[in-house]
Design a protein that fits this description.
The structure is a single chain. This protein is an alpha/beta fold and about 650 residues long. The chain contains 21 helices and 26 strands. It is about 30% helix and about 20% strand. The two termini are about 60 Å apart.
């Protein structure tokens, strides 16, 4: 129940509202005198609306603008002093897995991944907040100083950042969403391989802005199209057109490179079912059924299948060999006339007379046409009066073009309930898996930085189980608190990350149980990494600001940091992938980490001397790192580089 305002009418707001009714595009979001964002009238546009002559105004540009755009640019570019610390107790098969689950603010996660995964991610698949006014929670600390921040009312996260819902009554309704999504997409683009692409689920609230912001970041020429997902369930609370669809926007990093390496096809979902049905019917021929009769039955069966695509339904014939096929015109497809060789007529096999040639000629030269006829791949009519068609066999065309329309009215709610994973409106595994299958290869990396219930991880494991692939996933999710009283909270989950990690564990178990033979080598593990403050003390970043009483400190590393924490910060700093195998060894009684065999070696123990360095150098690592305070004395520190120059001259030596 709404409360009374208990104050006089705000005439300015009332007038702005009336102008908005008449000229919606003349009212926009802008900063007021106090720095707050509110609805303002664009008087240049309004003057033009009230005049039939050109009104002078600011220079026009074709671009997307919003209050906070400059701050969003700054947010994308600003460096951070954070680390990703491993959490073995929450991981599965930490040492062997190549999958990552990263817990933290996804903007910070993307920044930390920039060097290690620069140009290495094949697909990004995200389902960002839809900005409905209810489920879009955002941080609001970009433009406030500490005093203003502390005096603002609202909720705070564990790090003291104010969290609030982006209500439609807020003047920054669209601007907040754009400021949230822009820096994340800007950095995400850097992670994509040259032939990589991003898929973004979005609904009607921000579809237009999402399209424009993707054009801004990825470039309009790299737009691969938009898939309209018909969910077959109109929204019941609509006050206008009742939307029953969502959109999946698809952009590439480099369209030409992608198309050169990807066929842009998807498997025909029902092809195997059709082949099995045809095989079953073809066996009836031995039971006094004719080929004509089984074709009639096959076509009636296809007509009854409401979920078949038009491409699948076209394969409605069975030939003398029991193969399913469709007839396709062999006419020359271009407006320009074909060469003379493309006009040689085909001879009917029964009447031995020439069949009619298409007006613009055949699609193929005469040599190809003869080979097709010899292979039984040309369909002739009852006599020479009918123009022949090409026979396309279903078994040779199990893929189809990716359609702009996707019909799927189901959900995975029941599956998650069976797995006892409480999560509202999860993405659909089948749809995510279909797109991963269409666009990626068996060894590619797939990233989802709005992981939610980790549907993308589930889809990657499921597809790997089906085709023997070794795709790797990187999930990133903010540990949003489960509301008190929610089903998730009742089940004992504190935040969404706990739900996502448990969903991966249970999905892996389910996949293994359903495919015991095909999943013996399946990677169902994941390394959990958490965004934390840098492993390095403040003195490491600003030694000139060190206070007099701190000069006696012998180390520049925080007290709560483990050697493995340091290792992963080194991997980030040196741009080494975080999923590579790590083996822990011992040299002269000191702990040594070997990453990807000898790609990097690290020792953070104290007492490093010449004997230790000589033995480590014998392994000839590409890179090696020590703790600056870890050397036994100054001589050992100086000798370290000299020893490596002699025994392993290509090794790059660094200290923390």
């Amino acid at each position: 129940m709404q409360k009374l305002k208990m104050r006089s009418l705000d005439l300015v707001c009332d007038n702005v509202a009336r102008i908005r009714e008449l000229f919606p595009h003349c009212v926009t979001e802008a900063h007021d005198a106090g720095g707050e964002v509110t609805l303002k009238v664009d008087f240049d546009l309004l003057r033009q609306e009230l005049s039939d002559e050109l009104v002078e105004g600011p220079q026009e540009r074709y671009r997307l603008d919003w209050p906070g755009k400059r701050e969003a640019y700054a947010a994308a570019n600003a460096p951070i002093a954070k680390s990703l610390r491993p959490c073995r107790e929450e991981s599965v098969d930490f040492d062997a897995t190549e999958n990552l689950y990263i817990e933290g603010d996804n903007l910070e996660v993307l920044k930390l991944l920039q060097e290690s995964y620069l140009g290495k991610v094949k697909m990004i698949y995200i389902d960002p907040p839809y900005n409905t006014g209810n489920d879009f929670i955002y941080k609001d600390n970009f433009t406030e100083d500490a005093r203003e921040f502390l005096h603002r009312n609202g909720q705070y996260d564990d790090d003291g950042n104010r969290m609030k819902q982006n209500l439609e009554s807020d003047g920054r309704f669209h601007s907040n969403w754009l400021s949230m999504i822009y820096p994340r997409l800007r950095i995400a683009r850097n992670l994509l391989a040259d032939d990589g692409l991003i898929l973004l689920n979005i609904d009607e609230n921000e579809i237009t802005n999402m399209q424009k912001i993707c054009e801004l970041i990825f470039g309009e020429p790299n737009d691969l199209g938009t898939i309209v997902w018909d969910k077959r369930n109109p929204k019941g609370d609509s006050r206008g057109v009742s939307y029953q669809h969502e959109c999946i926007i698809v952009f590439s990093r480099n369209k030409e490179t992608l198309l050169a390496n990807c066929k842009m096809l998807r498997p025909k979902k029902n092809a195997e079912l059709m082949l099995k049905k045809a095989e079953q019917l073809f066996k009836k021929i031995d039971s006094n059924f004719t080929l004509k009769e089984i074709n009639k039955e096959f076509q009636a069966w296809i007509t009854m299948q409401k979920d078949f695509s038009s491409g699948e339904a076209a394969y409605k014939f069975i030939d003398n060999n029991g193969d399913v096929y469709r007839p396709v015109s062999m006419a020359w497809p271009n407006n320009k006339k074909a060469p003379d060789d493309y006009f040689i007529p085909l001879i009917h096999p029964t009447t031995h007379k020439a069949c009619p040639v298409p007006q613009k000629g055949w699609r193929n030269p005469s040599v190809t046409m003869r080979k097709l006829q010899e292979s039984g791949l040309i369909i002739f009519g009852k006599d020479e009066s009918i123009q022949p068609n090409r026979k396309y066999l279903l078994k040779e065309n199990m893929d189809e073009n990716i359609s702009s329309l996707l019909y799927y009215g189901g959900s995975d709610t029941d599956m998650l309930a069976e797995m006892e994973v409480p999560f509202d409106t999860p993405k659909v595994v089948a749809i995510v898996k279909e797109h991963i299958n269409s666009f990626t290869k068996p060894d590619d990396i797939i990233l989802d930085f709005f992981s939610g219930s980790a549907t993308t991880a589930h889809a990657v494991m499921q597809l790997n189980a089906e085709d023997g692939g070794n795709r790797k996933f990187i999930m990133a999710q903010w540990p949003e608190i489960c509301p008190p009283g929610s089903e998730a909270a009742k089940a004992g989950y504190k935040n969404i990350c706990e739900i996502g990690k448990e969903r991966i564990r249970r999905a892996a178990k389910k996949i293994m149980e359903e495919n015991p033979l095909a999943t013996q080598d399946l990677d169902i593990g994941f390394r959990v990494l958490k965004v934390k403050p840098s492993c390095m003390a403040d003195v490491y970043y600003a030694p000139d600001e060190t206070k007099q009483q701190e000069l006696g400190l012998s180390d520049n590393i925080r007290d709560d940091v483990t050697p493995e924490d340091l290792l992963f910060q080194v991997l980030i700093d040196w741009g080494v992938e975080l999923h590579l195998p790590v083996i822990t060894g011992s040299i002269k009684g000191k702990k040594v980490f070997f990453v990807d065999d000898t790609r990097l070696a690290a020792c953070f123990d104290n007492g490093i001397n010449d004997e230790f360095i000589k033995e480590l150098a014998s392994h000839k690592p590409a890179r090696v790192v020590f703790r600056d305070s870890g050397f036994a004395d100054d001589a050992a520190r100086i000798n370290a580089e000299q020893i490596f120059r002699q025994l392993s001259p290509t090794t790059e030596v660094r200290v923390l």
